[in-house]
Amino acid sequence: MPFLPREFQVPEPPRTDEFVLTPLRVDHVVLDYDAVMSSRERLWQLFGPGWGWPREDLSLMQDLVDLGWHQKEFQLRRSFSWAVLTPDQRTLLGCCYLDPSETEGFEAEGCYWARSDRVASGLEERLSATYRAWLAAAWPFQRVAWPGRDQPW
Fold first, then answer.
1. Domain carrying residue 111
2. Could you tell me the pTM of the whole model?
3. Closest CA to 26 of 53, 55, 60, 54
4. Mean pLDDT value of segment 88-113
5. Strand spans (E) along the chain
């Protein structure tokens, strides 16, 4: 069964006064690399068990390859990744991901993170609420798993 119905139109991502979601692209590499590497220890705690990411020796070139993969997967509608940017798009605040589920009983898996220097402000909770509400309202999935959050890896 395909991840999405063929006729499904990918909805416009949410925007708030604090952040905007935009499809993750290779031209985000400098902003993404800064956010990932400045938050690497926390990200490893969140995603390392499931994804083995981000490695301590992640290079800018490897991050570029990763972003190219995310961009192509989005174009092919196989999985979706969004950069979470400040409204002026000068700072990458985190990312959101939507993938086909590997968890029985779920149609999709959602993941998200906020950079470490913004977590204390409550950004990750606001991002979580916005992202989860958007998926529930605008996407065709009845059950989304949240590995590393609501379900273990």
1. 20-145
2. 0.94
3. 60
4. 95
5. 20-23, 80-85, 92-100, 108-114, 144-145
Q: What percent of the chain has pLDDT over 70?
A: 99
pLDDT of residue 2: 67
Distance CA 77, CA 79 (A): 6
The average pLDDT across 6-30 equals 97
In a domain, 10, yes or no: no
Phi/psi of residue 9, each to 5°?
Answer: -95, 125
* Contact of 94 with 124, CB cutoff 8 Å: yes
Query: What six digits make up the tokens of 117?
Result: 């220097």
Q: Is residue 151 part of a domain?
A: no
Q: What is the predicted pLDDT for the residue at 1?
A: 53
Give the total number of structural domains in the chain: 1
Query: Tell me, what CATH number does 59's domain have?
Result: 3.40.630.30
